[in-house]
Amino acid sequence: MFKRLLTTVTVISCLTLTLQAAAAENSSSVLTGGVAAPAPKHPFPEHESYQSGTIKPNHVSQGQLDNDVRKKYDEWKARYLVQPPKQSGQYYVYYNLEKQASPANAVSCSEGHGYGMLITSLMAGYDPLAKDYFDGLYRFYKAHPSVNNPALMAWQQIKTAQGDVIDTPPSDSDDGSRSATDGDMDIAYALLLADKQWGSSSQINYLEEAKAVISAIMEQDVNPQKWSLKFGDWVENNDPDYALATRPSDFMLGHLRAFGKASGNTDWTKVADNTHKIIQTISSKYSPATGLLPDFVVFKNGAYAPSPPYLLETERDGFFSWNAARVPWRVPIDYLLTGDTRALNQTRLTNAWISKKTNNDPGKIVAGYKLNGTPLDDEDPAIAFSAPFAVSAMVDASNQTWLNALWNSLVTAPTATNAYYGNSIRLLCMITVSGNWWDPTDARN
Fold it and tell me: Which of 43, 118, 174, 404 could staple 59 via S-S, CB 3.0–4.6 A?
């Protein structure tokens, strides 16, 4: 259920390439449904002003950082952004070319869809077709709602027997018809970005759609007993195993702040406060030497603790593994943008540990650790683990050499030899590290 799925995928359709070539002739506007698309208000590169004292790679120019992002975006888009042949006007992020997902005909998941909506909204201005892609991703999301709430996206989509129509698995087949919190949160944040990027007066009212998703997340994905983030809308608030369990890779503190501003609901502050409490509790009690957070956290005997094995996925559920790999990216973004220091010590501790552990060599980062820093096994290095550390390295100037080395590793690692999960995380982290992640609810924007 909700397995970490690592795959590579297909090239973009000939139609998409044709559209892009035509659009390149006039990048100032793109036709969307026959109507000229508004020019983006925050075109890439954005060059956001992060918190004073934070750093970016300094061994290459800002222009080179931006060009590195553009190149990885082009590669990512060509591999993963797909238009269903019989569902005109829609796009999805294809995550299962290597057939490691179950079932074998799975093609899309809400996690990847959220990544795609974030990426296309942030890359507008460079890509003249970004709004077309975003709107197509939006339409696909709306066409595949969770059975529990139509504002949320079903976790997984499959190809039908005919092979050319995408559908959601039957609700009695597995959990694919219900939502996952990470996908829900990224889709909501991306819709806020789209509202600031293009406005909400055209065919899609991005702001109202964002508010609807935010409301649904509060209703379905948050447990008000502790104001904790649940795994998805399938978890009942009185579930003995999962009600108060949570997933640190969902600890998107910047998202939570934005949801509160956009919705005016002060309960989002309660969610953020409890999320900080969990980070502090786990890192101080269970990983005081590393600051690592586990894939999943449970609430037992009146306190938060790492998950036991097989709570949701594997024997690694209580370790820093494929889910938690995203924590060093997700958690520090809020500090970069706002200066909120509550998670700063945990971020600094983790970076100090990993840089020392690897002797400032990103190639020595392996795919998973126990919370005490012991490698889980001899797996090859994985970009899904190394890329997020580049974001957390930004919080302290003493990490400059380490950050430069991490950036080089992200730029030089071939897209073709990595998979959907790592390539998507790599691109989002590079957007952030280059100074191009921004808050759509910041009054300055």
Answer: 404
CA 277 to chain centre: 22
pLDDT tens digits along 83-133 = 988 778 999 999 876 666 678 888 999 999 999 999 999 999 999 999 999
SS3 367: coil
Please give the helix or strand (H or E) that residue 222 lies within, else none. strand 222-223
Q: Is 313 a catalytic residue?
A: no
Active-site residue (options: 68, 111, 186, 295): 111
**With helix as H, strand as E and coil as C, how does 110-159 read?**
HHHHHHHHHHHHHCECCECCHHHHHHHHHHHHHHCECCCCCCCECCEEEE
- The tens digit of pLDDT for each residue in 271-282 reads 999 999 999 999
Catalytic one of 182, 221, 317, 439: 182
Please report the pLDDT score of residue 7 as a whole number: 34
